[in-house]
Specification:
Elements (H helix, E strand, L loop, with lengths): L8 E4 L5 H8 L4 E5 L2 H11 L3 E3 L12 E7 L8 H11 E12 L4 H6 L17 H10 L2 E7 L6 H9 L5 H7 L5 H27 L5 E8 L1
Length: 222
């Protein structure tokens, strides 16, 4: 496309590289970065996505070298989010875009569920960002907000289901090593999926009122 910046897409906090693999299959050049060497290695092995283990401030990439940079559920885990945003701004090529996603502490879910809201993941989450907090942080870091999105089909309904019934959450059950018979596992998984489906109308409604439980913001260098 004429005028589009050159360079790869860099996913910060790439984990096992699922997103990078999906984007590579769509024809994008991709790079990954994660603080876990195991995650970076998994991205290479499973999705053929080049990934390195490093902090963004020390990333081995030249300035102005990436066309797009994504950070999905990364900033809330950092002691110094501003340092990551400064590094992101330095790495973006002219015309490049930054996409960040964080839990939205101004969401209806956060207000209704308070300490039971799964977006308030203490002690793993060091910051609870409201959407307007995230915008101010981006603007003070030299970015101009282009677009906001308050709904994620992957995150919002599942987040509400996990808040309402944390013992049903499949990932939490695996992490805790809960012993389950095959029949009990199947029944619990089915109950969780039913709760996710039932959560969809509410999460779509809160997003329509710009109060979704996640906020994704696209920004460019100001």
């Amino acid at each position: 496309m004429r005028g589009a910046p050159e360079g790869p897409l860099l996913d910060v906090g790439c984990g096992g590289g699922l997103f990078l693999g999906m984007m590579r299959e769509r024809g994008f050049r991709v790079l990954g970065l994660d603080s876990s060497s195991q995650a970076a290695s998994l991205a290479w092995r499973r999705h053929r996505a080049p990934a390195v283990c490093a902090r963004l401030e020390q990333a081995p990439f030249p300035a102005s070298s990436v066309a797009g940079l994504t950070m999905f559920h990364v900033l809330e885990h950092l002691y110094d989010p501003r340092a990551y945003l400064a590094a992101a701004r330095s790495l973006l090529a002219p015309g490049g875009r930054l996409v960040v996603q964080v839990p939205n502490a101004a969401s209806w879910q956060a207000r209704l569920l308070r300490g039971s809201w799964n977006g308030m993941d203490v002690p793993r989450h060091l910051f609870d960002f409201r959407d307007r907090d995230m915008e101010k942080l981006l603007q003070s870091s030299g970015f101009e907000v282009v677009r906001r999105k308050y709904f994620s089909l992957r995150d919002n309904p599942a987040g509400l289901a996990s808040s309402l019934a944390p013992s049903f959450d499949p990932m939490a059950r695996r992490v805790r090593g809960i012993a389950e018979s095959p029949a009990r596992r199947l029944a619990t998984d089915f109950a969780y999926l039913a709760l996710v489906a039932a959560s969809l109308p509410f999460t779509a409604l809160e997003a329509a009122f710009r109060a979704g439980s996640t906020v994704m913001i696209e920004a460019r260098r100001a």
